[in-house]
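Cont'd.
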Amino acid sequence: MEIPYTTELRPDTGVYNAKLGIWLFLASEVMLFGALFSAYILLRVGAPPGLWPHGWLDVRLGALNTVLLATSAITTLLAWAACKVRDFGKFRFFHGCTILLALTFLGIKSYEYHDKWIHYEVQLKDGRIADGHLVEQNDQAVVLHGRYVTDEKDLYDLRAQKDIQLGEITIDRASIKKMENYAPKHNTFTAIYFTLTGLHALHILGGTCVIFYFWAFGGSMWRKDPERFTNRVEVSGLFWHFVDLVWIFLFPVLYLT
Amino acid sequence: MSDSEHHVDLNQYIRRCGMVFVVVLCALGLMIYASYLPNVGWPAKVTIILAIAVCNAFVVASFLMHLLTEKKMIFTVLAFTVVFFTGLVGLTLWAMHDLPAGTAVH
């Protein structure tokens, strides 16, 4: 059975069906991320003064990921343009680059997650707080690479503090009142950070799988119906650009403000 | 992206992509610079940074997604999206201070 309007334009909409479909899907995605951004604004504005983190995320890694994603958006567009000029070799080259860039993005994101996962805040019975990355732990003691603070507010605005001295500190387990890593449950910032970036990373992963499918198994459709294949690449490209757009707002909101 | 019958010149696309990439890099640099500006309040910083991000997003949507040359149907979908998105964020912010009578704020 012939599927209608896969390549020719539908008279009433002026576009082929898949394009209208992806735009409707992207509209629903805007609402999904919009709800989460609204949640972020509520949490951010509602936070008590001095108790919202600044400088917890590495701006250099975030900026690098921005560059990677922008580059991948460009290679996606060029892959589509290569299909339009009927050059399958260039299509595979550009989409291969897209896949590599996307995997690098996910690798950096995983590193950032791991960095938060091994970052601990240890409240001591004497009122001090030890904060730093876990080096090792056993039944008797916990070793962190970090520092002691007396006021919890000192842990929040890292940008305002100059010359933070970090060192290896050993904490006796008997003196620990509470010990918690910077996982989503740590506070509202980590909760919304992991939710927003995790959902975004899932979109990256899904988009990468689709692009990989076209890259690896698209040859047969390319030979049978290149125009239809080109439209598929275009639709997946629109999704990829949307994911890039989301990151364009995620980076400044989470890393810079 | 553009219509399926649209003619494509790959070299022209590569040049256009180069320009978009430079714009994205400039926007990224400006956002980071703005975030470290001394003697600027948090609301002003957020406004500047988000304004740059909006410009950046406009460039990406216009040139990489070919939104400038899209059909009316796509703009109709986007118009509805803008209305619903504005309602979603606006109602949420509006309700932020709409506390039940007798609520104690600490």
